[in-house]
Amino acid sequence: MLGHRGQESNPQNILDVELEGIWYSDYPWILFEVDSPAHVLATSFALEEWSKKYFQKLKETHQSHYEQMGFFSGKLKVNGKYYELDNLDAFRDHSFGHKRDWTIMHRYIYHMFYLKDGTKISVGVISQPCTSSNLMVGYVAHPNKKVDMIDDCDLKLYQHGENGTLPTELCFTVTANHKTYELQVKYLLESIHYKGRAREAKMHERFHKCIVNGVSGRGISEWHYNNKQ
């Protein structure tokens, strides 16, 4: 992502990169299958047509996913030039389960927000039609390390980039612990990569700047598209 604008999407642009550092955290970790509000999961499953086959598919495709906000410090070397990375906002996440099948995932939109007042927000909207065509996950991590799980989000996947053309700006709201957050996003640099042995998943990774309830910040987003065709 370093260099002149546009180079991040140029596959011919090769950089010699070395990264050494440490990730650390005093934030609690979030396990979505345990910490997500029960009514959020119930609402998602209630939208689907129930059958024995449906519940068997839920069991077969279940994925555990955890996240944790934290910080990163270290040294970055790019084409011989060094950069000091000191106490950068960061997070870690991991998904695991019986099997990982990208072909059953239709789309998702994921955002991470890091605000100047120390608030950090993670929110994702996911469509996996065989189990949940509209699943919302996320949380707000406050500067005092208290975490509120998001219990509502008005971002609708079909309204934004369903045809593969991503918007340059986006506005939506979420609620957590009876507080509404108005999220304004302007996307900046973009890079595309693929996952799966047959490149079944296409990922658009974008840096963004944002304003949340009047507080500015920056973050990253990941827009996933099914690429099995």
Automatic annotation (TrEMBL):
<dbReference type="Pfam" id="PF23212">
    <property type="entry name" value="DUF7064"/>
</dbReference>
<feature type="domain" description="DUF7064">
    <location>
        <begin position="101"/>
        <end position="226"/>
    </location>
</feature>
<protein>
    <recommendedName>
        <fullName>DUF7064 domain-containing protein</fullName>
    </recommendedName>
</protein>
<dbReference type="InterPro" id="IPR055492">
    <property type="entry name" value="DUF7064"/>
</dbReference>
